[in-house]
Amino acid sequence: METSVRIQNILSQINKLDYQSRLSLAEQLNKLLKISQKETQSTSHDLTELNALGSEIWKNVDIDKYVEQEREWD
Fold it and tell me: pTM for the whole thing?
């Protein structure tokens, strides 16, 4: 079933509710959205978090010598 059709079905059911039930539903939806937003924010990362990742591997490596060795690899 298409999303817009589902939404229309849900809205038609909501229209049948009394005011207090609609208010309760709105509060519950608000809570769900806040939880969903927190989950999304907690799993998203900034690319700058990768800065210096793995730098300990290169700590004692002479970069110029390493590049020279790699170029001779052919």
Answer: 0.48
H or E segment at 57? Answer: none
pLDDT (tens digit per residue) in 40-51: 776 677 888 889
- Taking each continuous run of H as one helix and of E as one strand, the counts in the chain are 3, 0
Residue 17 lies in a domain: yes
**What residue has token string 């079933």?**
1
Q: Which residues contact 22 (CB under 8 A, 6 or more apart)?
A: 14
User: Residue 1 sits in which domain range?
Assistant: 1-44
DSSP code at position 26 = H
Q: How many domains does the chain have?
A: 1
